[in-house]
Design goal:
The structure is a single chain. The protein is of the alpha+beta class. The chain is about 35% helix and about 25% strand. Strands 6-3-8-7 form a four-stranded mixed beta sheet, sandwiched between helices. Strands 1-2 form a two-stranded antiparallel ribbon. A hairpin with a 6-residue loop joins strand 1 and strand 2.
């Protein structure tokens, strides 16, 4: 790899709260990445709704942290493939009570990005209706279908503990 490519691949990006600079190292294993990204999904959701919840929270993470995506790549035929997360993303499972508690713990950490999908997001087909339902529900009464967390590897590891992969 040339020095020019090194500079393009390894640069400084902002962490979830923009308080700490993070060096993007696309030449390292995801297990060595300075950030960890997980999505924890309600294990009782049917497969289609679980995948939808994970995909929707991932989209919101991508919007909040565009530097989490690596650069585009070209295959041997010259076709371009959009950049994927350089830090990887594990999709884990938890019951509804654990998911709610995890969201609360993570939200209290200033260096962790929390993106959640409350239940009304999957039951409403009109976004404004979802926002109205959300506004009319007390925080403690919300049920979460998924919670995405991005932050320092050790902090996220402590939050998700031994949660299993979603199967």
């Amino acid at each position: 790899m040339t020095a020019q490519n090194d500079a393009a691949r390894n640069h400084t990006a902002q962490s979830p709260t923009a308080r700490h600079a993070v060096t993007v190292r696309t030449d390292l294993s995801t297990r060595q990445a300075p950030l960890k990204w997980v999505i924890v999904v309600d294990e009782d959701l049917p497969a289609g709704r679980a995948v939808n919840a994970a995909a929707c929270t991932a989209a919101a993470v991508g919007r909040a942290l565009p530097d989490l995506l690596g650069g585009d790549g070209r295959d041997g035929s010259g076709h371009v493939h959009p950049g994927l997360p350089w830090a990887g993303c594990s999709v884990l499972a938890a019951d509804a009570a654990t998911l709610h508690a995890l969201r609360e713990k993570a939200a209290a950490k200033e260096d962790v990005l929390v993106v959640d999908m409350p239940e009304p997001a999957q039951t409403s087909r009109i976004y404004d209706e979802y926002l109205d339902l959300l506004a009319g529900t007390k925080h403690e009464d919300l049920t979460y279908h998924a919670v995405a967390l991005v932050g320092p590897r050790n902090r996220i590891g402590k939050l998700v503990g031994k949660l299993p992969l979603l199967r």
